[in-house]
Task: structure prediction
Amino acid sequence: MKVVIMAGGEGVRLKPLTILRPKPMVPVCNLPLMEHILKLLKKNGFNEMVATLYYLPEMIQFYFEDGSKWGVDLSYVLEDTPLGTAGSVKKAVSSWKETFIVISGDVLTDINLREAYAFHKKVKASATLILTRVPNPTEFGVIIINEKNEIVRFLEKPGWGEVFSDTINTGIYILEPHIFDGYPENTPFDFSKELFPELLRNGSPIYGFVSSGYWCDVGNTDLYLQCNLDALERKIAMDCLFKEEKNGLRLGEDVSVSQSATISGNVLIGDNVKIGEGVQIVGPVVIGDSSIIEDNSKIKRSVIFPNAYVGKNTEIVGSIIGSYTSINKNCIVLEDSVLADRVMVGEGVQVNSGIKVWPNKTIEPLSTVTSSIILGSHWKKTLFGKQGVKGIVNVEISPEFSSKLGSALGSILPIKSNIALSRDSSPASRMVKRAFLTGLLSTGVNVFDIRSLPAPIPRFVGKELNVKGGAHIRTDTEERKVQIEIFDEYGINIKQDIERKIESIYFREELRRVPLEDVGAIDFPPHIIEYYINGLSKIIIKPEILKKSKYRIVFDTGSYDFANILSTLCDQFEIECFNLKSTEMNYDKVSKFVKDNSLDMGIIFTRDGESLLLIDKNGNILKGDDLFSVFSYAICKAKNGATIALPVSVSRTTEKIINNFSGRVIRTKTLPQGLTSIDIRQCDLLCGEEGMAIPKFQIALDAIATGFSFLEHLSMVGESLEEIRSKIEPCLVEKEVIPLPWGAKASVMRFLIESHMNEKVEFIEGIKIFKKKGWVLIIPQPDNPALEIYAEGTSFEESRSLLEEYKDLVKSLPETK
Result:
């Protein structure tokens, strides 16, 4: 007797459990739904089967293979495009001549199929629908049968006003092949909507067989949990449970249960599970293979998938925990919640009732989750944020992740390409760099390991080493995050189209793997610092003027160790320098040092030498827009008609200074990649955010080069830093970040554009709206569910007022609620 198992469904209503697996592979009592179906069919005498597949078919094929493990003959038919329930079955049985059964591979049932088959043969039906009765039929096809069990009426998913019976279609059919006559091959059509109504209209014998057996379509996560609990409580006849030990406890093999743990009720524990001291498990509960439940945790009325981890003192009540999900200590997961596969839950988290968390999400420690996390993950289907890839060490950026990212980068480069790789001095960066390096080597890319040096150095020396690009890895100890920045052969962060290529390869796992003879090599190039210092010296056009100034300066390199480079350059240009190395950026400390020692200025380096702040001899700090104004003044006065590139967010004050010296302004995006969208050869200075600037002849972000170039121009204009500062109007830009749902960003931007069609606007990045006395700039953040709002008026008060006006406007939109 032959069977068609319909196993192509995506299980949309069962999300998030079906995002990383097809619905037939969702486990009930630690076995996939489809395995229960195979066991039922075998038990009822059916042994020749074909499964129709569409969504993630390889998972089903890999698990079941040819079915011989279950004593059946199983083959497969794959749909390139959805053919509907009847269309897919017709494709599967095109050569069959005898009666066959159709059954879903994603239901849970113990219906007596042999009895139904005998009924079908007895009444000589063309089609027999196996029926059952349910209290709420609105989610199913409702059926009316007469006293002969002939179907006289049916209606698919009626509203309560249309309900005319509690008898519903289970989706299990016994059919004769001739019913498909008249329907061409590869034509989409459906059993309930087209084929069965047509049979009814034509007077074909179509019957209903009402079964008293257990049946559940596992249509949503509530029903999924209930199915598991029903099985444990023996509401369904199932012969696949482990041997019952005592009092409802069923144990797999190699289970370790602490003597102080207490287990009560109906509980199923899979193979290789570890239950710690003081754990309380109150059934019905299912715990999947190779899971770990740490000391003093409590599990009640829940299903835990294989390879899950539950930390100490954690409580899970009435919930579903996916595979490879890790829940840290001291957490609470309340009723009706679902944490899908590979969710990382930080310490002390509370997940409120009814929450659903999609796969691969991370919940920060001490959070209270009050709404479902669907799109608001850290990675979202993108890896790159505003500046590279950034995430929590060993949670979002693990060795496995880093190796895969390195492989994705290497996969877009030619075999035997060269890549420069460096890091800061933290152990976490070293770990990530080594994993990233391994991924590169596996794709046949060679690595120049520049070890622990500031980011500007590998960016600069790339042209000396003939590399195709590079990467620098740094750690933010305050946020406990690591950041991977990838740059091109010129040392500039890769463009967004390259980021998308890497992301596509990463998520689709189309990683290149080379044979033994093509595996990449590691080289440790010598004289890197010498290359950098020699190159940097060449950007100083008039070294004699700089030497005459006899500057006295204190440098603070923070946690980065490049004081020797600064000292060498200072000796070369006859600058008296003092070096500080604050573990935390202490501006007051540097400011005091400048004043106490009557120095000309202080320079504080941040972001691993990629950005800087200045402190004048009076101890005043210059950063951001004020810093760019000072830079622009010095360069434009030294060279009348200079060209300066400014991000679209930088103050009009800086633009006025440039215009006053007959200079030219080119506006760019705020992202580092925005600097590559212009002809850099035209520019005397390129400015980025947070004190990052690029002097002419040095393409990459380099605060060391910027600092010395600024000192040269300061010498050329013959003015001190504080004198220039006193001549410059204050920059009035106000900025704020507004959080909002991920899905709202695009619709909010559309509203802003549509509502300002008749005003002067710019679209260099986001939308910049020009008002009578200022401007407002709104930019969606690429790596967070948030908007950045900048505003500038003619005073701080007007800037703040303009910012608040647009904050209120954004927050008033329905999409942001």
